[in-house]
Specification:
This is Segregation and condensation protein B. It is a single chain. The chain is mainly α. It has nine helices and four strands. It folds into two domains: 10-75, Arc Repressor Mutant, subunit A (Orthogonal Bundle); 96-180, Arc Repressor Mutant, subunit A (Orthogonal Bundle). The protein is elongated, with a radius of gyration of 23 Å. The protein starts with 11 loop residues before the first helix and ends with a helix. The model is unreliable at 1-6 (pLDDT under 50).
């Protein structure tokens, strides 16, 4: 009888590289070829690493495949833990960068939008900003657009409404209202400057 020798386990460095790229890719995910190019490893080695990572149990994150792309995600059984984090006291301590706030505004006023839509409006890459907003639970994935590549669609979440004290997205101020507020602030500032100048 001929015995088939077991395949060698993936190289630890390959595992590290694949895992790191998946982490950075976030909800965009990666194909095997994309991972191979980024990790500078042959596709066969990347596939072996992905299979090993996908079979790893008992961790706070898992590697999964969906429609030919690989993602890093939280295990389903930890959903209640994630929900408590998103809706607990941590939500009141959210601090967003200017990039994240700009991205959130684009999603809120243009939803549903793709990452490409956001980047076209902002003029810069927005993958990190979207990852931040997803991590805080302020935006959610709302399916895929029927277009080449089937890009993910993003919408604001119930957590977004809670954090900003809104009953519905329709409660957001209109662009005209925002412009009026900005004009009022500018006019107020000019009046203060004139008053200060006359006092001198």
């Amino acid at each position: 009888m001929t015995y088939k020798s077991p395949s060698a386990p993936p190289e630890p460095e390959t595992l590290r590289r694949v895992e790191a790229v998946l982490f950075v890719a976030g909800d965009k995910g990666c194909t095997v070829s994309e991972l191979a190019a980024a990790a500078d490893r042959p596709p066969s080695a990347v596939k072996a690493a992905l299979e090993t990572l996908a079979d790893t149990q008992g961790r706070g994150v898992e590697v999964v495949e969906l429609a030919g792309r690989w993602y890093m995600a939280a295990p389903p059984d930890l959903g209640d833990v994630i929900d408590r984090y998103r809706t607990g006291d941590a939500s009141s301590q959210i601090r967003l960068s200017k990039a994240a706030l700009e991205t959130l505004a684009v999603v809120a006023y243009g939803q549903p939008v793709t990452r490409g839509d956001v980047e076209e409006i902002r003029g810069v890459r927005s993958d990190r900003a979207l990852e931040t907003l997803l991590g805080h639970g302020l935006v959610r994935i709302a399916g895929r657009r029927k277009a080449p590549g089937s890009p993910l669609l993003y919408r604001t979440s119930d957590q977004f409404l809670k954090v900003f004290g809104l009953s519905a997205v329709s409660d957001l101020p209109t662009v005209a209202e925002i412009e009026a507020i900005k004009r009022g602030i500018t006019a107020s500032g000019e009046e203060e400057q004139e008053h200060d100048g006359s006092a001198e």
